[in-house]
Amino acid sequence: MCRWLAYWGPPLFMEELVTKPDHSLIHQSLHAAEAKSETNGDGFGIGWYGEQSRACTAKSCPPGTMIT
After folding, report:
1. Counting runs of H as helices and runs of E as strands, what totals does the chain give?
2. What are the angstrom distances between the C-alpha of 28 and each of 9, 50, 54, 60?
3. Average per-residue pLDDT in the chain?
4. Is 56 a catalytic residue?
5. How many CB atoms are located within 10 Å of the residue 32 CB?
6. Under 8 Å between Cβ of 33 and 25
7. pTM score, whole prediction
8. Any idea what DSSP says for residue 3?
9. Is residue 67 predicted with pLDDT exceeding 60?
10. pLDDT tens digit string along 3-27?
11. Which helix (H) or strand (E) holds 42?
12. Active-site choice (2, 6, 12, 33)
């Protein structure tokens, strides 16, 4: 299942949104009731804007393999 998160506000570390909340995206991924694999069975991706003029991305297709 896809999970989406959007944030618009003052700069902060991604962990404040992705890993620290009690029901974080990481928690949801690891405890998905209908998942066919343990973690990120369909891959993973994240995008953000920083100081540069274009979006940064990190993505993987198979679990555990990051492609940047």
Report:
1. 2, 2
2. 24, 26, 29, 18
3. 75
4. no
5. 15
6. no
7. 0.53
8. -
9. no
10. 778 888 898 888 898 889 888 877 7
11. none
12. 2
CA distance 52 to 30: 32
Residue showing tokens 């990190």? 58
Q: What is the residue whose two structure tokens read 């990120």? A: 40
Residue 14 token pair: 């991604």
Contact 41, 29 (CB under 8 A): no
Those residues with Cβ within 8 angstroms of residue 63's Cβ, 6 or more apart along the chain or in another chain: 37, 38, 39, 40, 41, 43, 44
Which residues, listed in sequence order, are joined to residue 48 by a DSSP beta bridge?
56
Q: For residues 56 and 48, is the Cβ–Cβ distance under 8 A?
A: yes
Give the CA angle between residues 39, 8, 15 to the nearest 5°. 40
β-bridge partners, 45: 59
